[in-house]
């Protein structure tokens, strides 16, 4: 009958799981030096049915007498500590009974039973039902010394409504905190400004404000999430009475894949780049793999470049990165300039949310990650070309090996020892090669100043040089097959892993569809378009621009030759590394399919997270009962329209979708009007130069490609390499999502097809049949009808 009653100091981490949310948190805070009034926890094992064990009552009396010995006339608070209480999902605040100011042994015993039996009350059942908690509650009971509070209050380390971290916000009353919860007394408001805790509120609390801020900031950091903190002042001392996650600032329920990370905090989310690479709603398996890779290469706390998840759609939370740059360099403008080159310019009027990084703490936190990042960059850069060259053979060998595996242990061993490490190395190749894209971006800006946008674009339309960019392979390869220069088998070997859904592991790529290439060949034949002619035409424009540059700037010819050589080399290795990472990532699909086969759950494997897949293969218990709910939410996300390219703040997709005045370019709830601008132009990025008038054809997916008629202007939410076989038929390209150096923009530039990318709301403003003028060099679309 041991382990029935434990003092806060005695409650070990192993026992804390049985002490409930409140009990375990009080014990943890007391053990870590926070000013917590002493007390103890009656664990669920102290009860048999509805009755308290006799031995447990004896232990309770021992703890009570020890506290009374040092506190004459002590009174106690008796509170619930359900095992489901004070979690990130549900707080159960006020749902269970609390009994205050009890002193005699009889009063305390009665209070214990009253609190314990409240787990079966109607209000607890109703709250549990709303939260989706169906099981009966296991409950521990906390007994804690009452402090004679002169001031009682709560402090939220972030705004629970907006998610802003600009201030900690709180309020307090005189006397016991129950008056604050019940609303029986008028509350006084105060703020603690971040990152230094500057106090703004009534004078009587000012002398305690700094300590309260320090405790709150420390708790938030240690617990890894914004906190709702109860506190009090008694006899001139500050006490911390409880800390729990702010449940309104939760990403949702990972168990059921109800996830919306914009709800965690007020931040700035952008899918300008990542939305092109990963345009699909992603399954739990895909997301968990990309998140692990994102963490591997990241060093800004809480910042995710490739795996921010808003209802299954991938975003980059650049607000966190902007705040980090501002903390380090003291300039938001600098951050906007740095990130604007990659993610595009932030629309006028859009406010930038604040995250309270302090410069010194941020530097200390980031330093190990930066060292690791630089070390990996140096290692990978040396071996990148060889790694890229070896990937095709390794992938073919590993796929064949996976297909021959007969048991779960063998498959798990291959994943942990070979495929997972190789996938990580391929990821680093993608990261390192991506930094080389800056060479072309910087050169583009310099050339624009010298020769203007049109000629700068033309000069950069030959980044492939005398070789071939990997992103051109899927489209040029079809032309080569038609001419008999490449076999169908070789086409699939080189390009079969590339497709519009290449990052989503639950979806097939062209290599798995034996009819895919035949359909592309048929559409190419029907279009009458020759991709080689387009390349030759664009090359002529490149040569003309190069000749004009030589005539105008003879002294800069050698400079440009060197710069062009570096930019071309950077573009080629970037595109090759991207292609080969995708090739390796598609091997992970083969692994997943085999895991589904060996575990007997088939394609449901894509609705597990990678850690769950590993556990399933190792024979450990995994709750696969969540899979139907995950699939249901995944399908619900797929039915939603594409979200805005830029999202500021906490985003509710259902409310946004039902707003008749919604915008596709950005969402910001702090701006009073969200009406779509009634301009006759669309503004985006200059993807590929050229000016052409034509008729719009809006496509939702590349699978609708047969609808695109030769000479029409292709308009889509986003295009990636998987769309490029359609490009030769298009007179121009317009997208909602995209950036100047996106893969699709590079292909359009090489083919000489005018493109305006990243317009934000082109698919909303335009409809099939509209007449427009596309000015790719200026990044403008003029709407004629």
Structure description:
It is a single chain. The chain is of the alpha+beta class and about 775 residues long. The chain starts with a strand and ends with a strand. About 45% of the residues lie in helices and about 15% in strands. The relative contact order is 0.08. The strands form seven sheets. Strands 21-28-27-23-24-25-26-22 form an eight-stranded mixed sheet, with helices on one face. The chain has a six-stranded antiparallel sheet with strand order 11-10-9-8-12-13.
**Coarse structural class:** alpha+beta
The overall average pLDDT, rounded, is 87
User: How many distinct helices?
Assistant: 24
- The helix content, as a percent range, equals 40-55%
Distance between the termini: 82 Å
**Gyration radius, in Å:** 31 Å
């Amino acid at each position: 009958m041991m382990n029935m009653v434990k003092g806060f100091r005695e409650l070990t981490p192993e026992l804390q799981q049985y002490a409930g949310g409140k009990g375990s948190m009080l014990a943890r805070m007391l053990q870590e030096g926070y000013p917590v009034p002493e007390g103890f926890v009656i664990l669920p094992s102290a009860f048999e049915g509805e009755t308290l064990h006799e031995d447990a009552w004896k232990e309770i009396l021992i703890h009570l007498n020890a506290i009374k010995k040092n506190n004459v006339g002590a009174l106690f608070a008796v509170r619930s500590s359900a095992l489901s209480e004070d979690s990130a999902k549900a707080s159960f605040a006020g749902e269970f009974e609390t009994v205050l100011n009890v002193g005699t042994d009889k009063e305390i015993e009665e209070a214990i039973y009253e609190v314990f039996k409240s787990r079966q009350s109607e209000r607890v059942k109703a709250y549990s039902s709303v939260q989706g908690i169906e099981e009966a509650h296991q409950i521990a009971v906390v007994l804690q010394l009452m402090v004679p509070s002169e001031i009682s209050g709560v402090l939220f380390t972030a705004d629970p409504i907006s998610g802003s971290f600009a201030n900690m916000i709180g309020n307090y009353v005189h006397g016991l905190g129950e008056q604050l919860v019940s609303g029986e007394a008028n509350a006084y408001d105060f703020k603690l400004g971040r990152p230094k805790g500057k106090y703004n509120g009534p004078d009587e609390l000012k002398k305690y404000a700094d300590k309260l801020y320090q405790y709150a900031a420390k708790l938030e950091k240690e617990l890894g999430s914004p906190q709702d903190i109860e506190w009090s002042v008694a006899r001139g001392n500050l006490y911390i009475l409880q800390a729990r996650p702010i449940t309104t600032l939760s990403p949702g329920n990972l168990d059921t894949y109800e996830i919306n990370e914009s709800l965690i905090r007020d931040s700035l989310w952008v899918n300008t780049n990542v939305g092109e690479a990963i345009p699909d709603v992603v399954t739990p398996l895909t997301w968990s793999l990309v998140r692990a890779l994102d963490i591997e290469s990241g060093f800004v706390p809480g910042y995710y470049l490739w795996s921010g998840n808003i209802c299954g759609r991938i975003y980059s939370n650049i607000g966190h990165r902007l705040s980090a740059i501002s903390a380090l360099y003291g300039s938001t403008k600098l951050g906007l300039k740095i990130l604007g080159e990659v993610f595009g310019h932030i629309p006028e009027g859009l406010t930038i949310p604040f995250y309270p990084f302090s410069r010194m703490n941020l530097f200390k936190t980031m330093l190990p990650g930066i060292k690791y990042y630089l070390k990996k960059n140096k290692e990978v850069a040396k071996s990148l070309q060889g790694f890229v060259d070896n990937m095709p053979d390794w992938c073919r060998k590993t796929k064949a090996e996976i297909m021959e595996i007969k048991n779960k242990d063998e498959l798990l061993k291959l994943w942990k020892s070979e495929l997972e490490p190789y996938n990580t190395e391929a990821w680093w190749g993608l990261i390192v090669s991506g930094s080389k894209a800056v060479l072309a971006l910087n050169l583009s800006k310099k050339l624009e100043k010298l020769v203007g946008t049109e000629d700068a674009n033309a000069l950069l339309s030959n980044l492939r040089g005398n070789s071939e960019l990997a992103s051109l392979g899927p489209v040029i390869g079809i032309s080569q097959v038609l001419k008999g220069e490449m076999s169908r088998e070789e086409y699939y070997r080189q390009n079969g892993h590339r497709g519009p859904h290449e990052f989503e592991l639950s979806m097939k790529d062209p290599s798995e569809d034996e009819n895919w290439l035949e359909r592309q060949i048929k559409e190419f034949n029907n279009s009458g378009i020759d991709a080689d002619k387009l390349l030759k035409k664009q090359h002529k424009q490149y040569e003309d621009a190069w000749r004009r540059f030589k005539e105008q700037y003879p002294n800069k010819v050698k400079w440009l030759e060197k710069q062009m050589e570096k930019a071309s080399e950077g573009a080629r290795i970037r595109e090759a590394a991207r292609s080969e990472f995708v090739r390796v990532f598609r091997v992970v699909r083969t692994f997943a399919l085999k895991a589904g086969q060996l575990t007997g759950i088939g394609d449901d494997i894509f609705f597990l997270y990678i850690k769950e897949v590993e556990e399933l293969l190792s024979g450990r218990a995994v709750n696969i009962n969540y899979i139907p709910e995950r699939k249901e939410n995944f399908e619900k996300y797929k039915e939603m329209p594409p979200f805005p390219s830029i999202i500021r703040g906490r985003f509710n997709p259902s409310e946004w979708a039902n707003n008749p005045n919604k915008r596709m370019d950005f969402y910001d709830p702090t701006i009073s009007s969200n009406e779509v601008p009634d301009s006759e132009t669309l503004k985006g990025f200059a993807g590929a130069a050229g000016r052409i008038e034509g008729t719009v054809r809006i496509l939702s997916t590349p699978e609708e490609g047969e609808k695109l008629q030769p000479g029409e202007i292709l308009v889509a939410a986003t295009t990636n390499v998987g769309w490029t076989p359609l490009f030769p038929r298009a007179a121009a390209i317009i997208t909602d999502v995209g950036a100047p150096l996106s893969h699709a923009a590079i292909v359009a530039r090489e083919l000489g097809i005018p493109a305006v990318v990243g317009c934000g709301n082109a698919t909303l403003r335009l409809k099939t049949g509209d007449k427009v003028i596309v000015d790719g060099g200026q990044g403008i679309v003029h709407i004629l009808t």
